[in-house]
Amino acid sequence: MGIAYANLGNYTTSAAFYVAAMGLNGGADNVWAYLRTNIACAGRLELMGPLDTKDLAALQKALPLHPPMPVQG
């Protein structure tokens, strides 16, 4: 899905899918490289620090695959 969204120019959604993939296999160096490219293309340069340190928790917080639903009540 990350590749598909990148091909459509939706780099933020693409990056969210790559972050989700990293949660399954954090040692996949090629996925980290694709994630870096998508973050740069999305203009999310503030995420380069967590990317450089491979801070997956920070990246998951910044790029959730599914946005949180609003609380109703």
TrEMBL record:
The keyword Amino-acid biosynthesis does not apply. It comes from the Eukaryota. GO terms for cellular component: cytosol; peroxisomal membrane. Keywords: Repeat, TPR repeat. GO terms for biological process: protein import into peroxisome matrix, docking. One of its GO terms (molecular function) is peroxisome matrix targeting signal-1 binding. SUPFAM superfamilies: TPR-like. This is Uncharacterized protein. The lineage of its organism: Eukaryota, Viridiplantae, Chlorophyta, core chlorophytes, Chlorophyceae.
